[in-house]
Structures are given as structure tokens and as C-alpha cells.
Amino acid sequence: MNVTDILPFFQLILAFGNICVLGYALYKFMNKPHDTLEDRVNAHDVEIADIKKSLLQGNDRFREQDDTNEVLIHSVLALIEFEIAYCLTEHKEPSRDLERAKEDLHAYLSKR
Q1: For the segment 42-58, what is each residue's pLDDT rounded down to a tens digit?
Q2: Residue ranges covered by each domain of the chain
Q3: Residues 102, 76: contact at Cβ < 8 Å?
Q4: What does the H/E/C string look like for 52-104?
Q5: H-run or E-run covering 26
Q6: C-alpha angle with apex 85: 65 to 99, nearest 5 degrees?
């Protein structure tokens, strides 16, 4: 066998290899938009899950704040009533601002 006899055989193998490489490159090129879109959808799914988790934690924080506000409002109301009762036991007239604060707080609580 001579080199010239083997040369067409190697050229055929190289041509077939080139066709395979080009076919693979075409396949990857054609699937690139699909792969990119799939990656974006997956990223958005993760982001949406994070946002939902954050909203749930935020809602829990608001519930805790509401409970804290309620305790503080009742404490302030108790202090106002204590001050008014103290003024009455000392035979002093409660100030108009103290009476107005009590009325405003009662009005606020009745609206809630």
C-alpha cells in the first residue's frame, strides 16, 4: 500500500469528522435561545420564591408590630387614667390636655 492509496481514506475520515463537528456546532447554536430562555425562567423562579419568602417574613413583622403597638397604647391609657385619678385624690383639677389626650386615645381605640 502506498501513501497515495491511503490518502483518500484519511480525507474521507477528516471530512466525516468535520461534518460531525459542524453538525454539533449547528445543534448547539440552534438550542442556544432555548437554553438561555430556560436559564432566565429558572432564575425568575428562584427570585419569585425569594420575594414570597420575604413578604411572608414582612407580614410576620407587621403582626409583631401591631401587638407591640397595642400593648403600648394600653399602657399609655393606663398611665393617663392613673394621672387623672392621682389628680382627683390630691384634689387638683386634671389639665385639659390630659383630658383631651384620654378622649383622643379612646376615640382612636374605638375606631380600631
Answers
A1: 999 999 998 888 887 77
A2: 3-111
A3: no
A4: HHHHHHHHHHHHHHHHHHHHHHHHHHHHHHHHHHHHHHCCCCCCHHHHHHHHH
A5: helix 3-89
A6: 65
DSSP assignment, residue 112? -
* DSSP state for residue 14 in the 8-state scheme: H
87/90 Cα distance (integer angstroms): 5
CA trace torsion 98, 102, 103, 107 (10° rounding): 150
Residue 41 half-sphere exposure, CB side, CA atoms within 13 Å?
6
Contact 79, 69 (CB under 8 A): no
Q: What is the pLDDT of residues 28-38, one digit of tens each?
A: 888 888 888 88
Cα Rg, the chain, nearest whole Å: 40
CA of 75: how far to CAs of 22, 72, 85, 97, in Å? 79, 5, 15, 18
